[in-house]
Specification:
Distance between the termini: 42 Å
Number of helices: 22
Largest sheet: none
Order of helices and strands: HHHHHHHHHHHHHHHHHHHHHH
Number of strands: 0
Radius of gyration: 20 Å
CATH architecture: Up-down Bundle
CATH topology: Growth Hormone, Chain: A
Strand content: under 5%
């Protein structure tokens, strides 16, 4: 693995905000990779004769690989540190992007997506762990919200700019550009990020992999873990499934939008998604009422998607999806909720478990909605009505499970 002290840090101290921004650049690329499918979908349907279910598998491959790796990422961060973990994994995102760019069979395209997911797996977790270790607890939600907002630059790129690029050249050019940007982000981490002092306690450093896995598994035996993970599995998944997969096909098929027009809408949604996390992070109500905010935000998002399913017109769909992008920022409160629900010694693994639930949820929801859309077509129904209604229903189910399952004890920071 790369050495723990970069050349730049050896020559001069690196401010923590500079290190955080370098790490956030990888997260921004991760955001771009996970949302570009919405703009590529029309060309992929034409070139590979891809069905809605196949598109769901294509988009979901990234998230399944990303989510499945979170256990190992969490352990890797605890055992080897933030810097080594991200520098070791991120080159796979470059390799996967190049594989996808040159794929001439759909199976190779899906495999490229999976490699990208593995490479990007540490991208956000290293940021949250860095914030948890380097900033006071009371600033965790605000700083995490800032990271989520800045990471949204990646989603902005997969709005209008990528729509123009793909329309002028091809979806392959999109993957090529992302590969080049990923190399630059890796170089930024290599040059500027140093492992924070005392980031890896000696007691953790001596753990074997088996011990680390058992301690990670112990999180699953904590009573309040189930409710936290049930909500995590549907909340972020709803946003990425809409913005990152179905937005393009919906606006093109339902309202006759061009790809560039879809890019403009995606840009607006992404801009709102950048504003939302810092906004909700700053108004974090604290542990006493945070869970009620999480339930309220989830049900509000379900209501917006239910309204979109009703097909009230192009203007309504654009307005509702943009508002959905802003409201989705409430999800940053989940990280603060989990941060407060476990002792400090379990923070890294608890956050990695949360991230794993989120991204496995994305993979499952994208595959499931692809299946729903395919079934709707067979039955002669509107696939987008069925898809949006299914996502709204899953959000309601997640909110109900979150309320019904055991909550963290007040002493741990829950309500």
């Amino acid at each position: 693995m790369p050495t723990s002290t970069p050349i730049g840090a050896a020559l001069r101290p690196t401010p923590r905000i500079v290190m955080l921004m370098a790490l956030t650049s990888c997260f921004a690329l991760s955001q771009a990779y996970r949302t570009v499918a919405a703009l590529m979908a029309p060309q992929l349907q034409t070139e590979f004769a891809a069905t809605p279910q196949a598109l769901g598998a294509f988009a979901g491959a990234f998230h399944f690989a990303f989510g499945a790796m979170q256990i190992f990422v969490g352990i890797g961060i605890d055992l080897h540190g933030i810097r080594r973990t991200v520098l070791t994994a991120f080159p796979l995102a470059v390799a996967g992007s190049l594989m996808a760019a040159y794929a001439h069979r759909f199976e190779w395209l899906v495999l490229g997506q999976a490699l990208i997911g593995i490479g990007c797996a540490p991208a956000f977790l290293v940021c949250t762990v860095f914030v948890a270790r380097q900033y006071p607890t009371e600033r965790f939600a605000a700083i995490s919200g800032l990271v989520l907002g800045l990471g949204g630059i990646g989603m902005l790129a997969t709005g209008s700019p990528f729509a123009w690029l793909i329309n002028a050249m091809s979806w392959r050019a999109g993957f090529g550009v992302l590969a080049v940007c990923s190399v630059a982000a890796w170089a930024a981490v290599w040059w500027w990020v140093a492992e924070p002092t005392q980031a890896i306690p000696s007691s953790v450093e001596k753990e074997s992999m088996g011990t680390a896995m058992r301690r990670f598994g112990a999180l699953l035996t904590v009573p309040h873990t189930a409710g936290l993970m049930a909500l995590a599995a549907v909340s972020y998944a709803s946003f990425i499934t809409v913005r990152g997969l179905w937005l393009g096909p919906l606006l093109i098929a339902r309202h006759g939008f061009s790809l560039v027009q879809v890019g403009h809408v995606a840009f607006a949604i992404s801009l709102m998604a950048m504003v939302g996390p810092p906004l909700f992070g700053r108004i974090d109500p604290g542990p006493k009422t945070r869970r009620r905010w999480l339930v309220g935000g989830t049900l509000a998002c379900a209501t917006l998607l239910g309204s979109m399913a009703s097909n009230l017109g192009a203007t309504s769909d654009v307005a509702l999806s943009t508002l959905f992008g802003l409201l989705s920022g409430y999800m940053v409160l989940q990280y603060a909720d989990v941060r407060a629900a476990y002792p400090a010694s379990m923070t890294g693994r608890a956050l990695s478990l949360l991230t794993m639930a989120m991204f496995l949820g994305v993979a499952a929801m994208q595959w499931f909605t692809g299946w729903v859309a395919s079934c709707a077509l067979v039955l002669g129904l509107d696939p987008f009505v069925a898809t949006l209604a299914a996502i709204a229903g899953l959000l309601v189910a997640g909110a109900v499970a979150f309320m019904a399952l055991p909550a963290p004890p007040t002493s741990a920071g829950g309500s």
